[in-house]
Design a protein that fits this description.
Strand content: 35-45%
Helix content: 10-25%
Radius of gyration: 15 Å
Structural class: alpha/beta
CATH superfamily: D-tyrosyl-tRNA(Tyr) deacylase
Oligomer: single chain
CATH class: Alpha Beta
CATH topology: D-tyrosyl-trna(Tyr) Deacylase, Chain: A
Number of strands: 8
Length: about 150
């Protein structure tokens, strides 16, 4: 799994012109799932995300986690995170999981994030054409790949 995490002061996702999910202070997370992903990726990544200390403390130092600041999460599936651009100019998405594998893992990831946070998160819709808006706070943008933990 690959996650692109952005610390936001607000974020939303629209599908067909209607707001599907919307948050205030927290994280907007783009999630790419590949065929090799499983429950261990879900467990490790969900814990990593909710415990990332990327929010400012009283001195403005990034010492607080999503849990510490009671932040919100907007999770968006994005298979293009697994794009390979090694050959030519047209990206290949061969590593991205097909829907029959990706959808159950995406749904499990949502549950894991909600369990870690102790509250519901906002999401887009798997496979939909989504319009994502955000105000990146900082800016702070972090990429995590579960296949590159070391």
């Amino acid at each position: 799994m690959i996650a692109v995490i952005q610390r936001v002061s607000e974020s939303s996702v629209k599908i067909n012109g209607t707001i599907q999910g919307q948050i205030g202070k927290g994280m907007m997370v783009l999630l790419g799932i590949e065929e090799a992903d499983d429950d261990t990726d879900i467990d490790w990544l969900s814990k990593k995300i909710v415990n990332l200390r990327i929010f400012g403390d009283e001195k403005g130092v990034m010492n607080k986690s999503l849990i510490d600041v009671d932040g919100e999460v907007l999770l968006i599936s994005q298979f293009t995170l697994h794009a390979s651009t090694k050959k030519g100019n047209r990206p290949s998405y061969i590593k991205a999981a097909k829907p029959d594998v990706a959808i159950p893992l995406y749904e499990e990831f949502i549950k894991a994030m909600e369990n870690q946070l102790g509250k519901n998160i906002q999401t887009g819709e798997f496979g939909a054409d989504m319009k994502v808006a955000l105000v990146n706070d900082g800016p702070v943008t972090i990429t995590i790949d579960t296949k590159n933990k070391v």
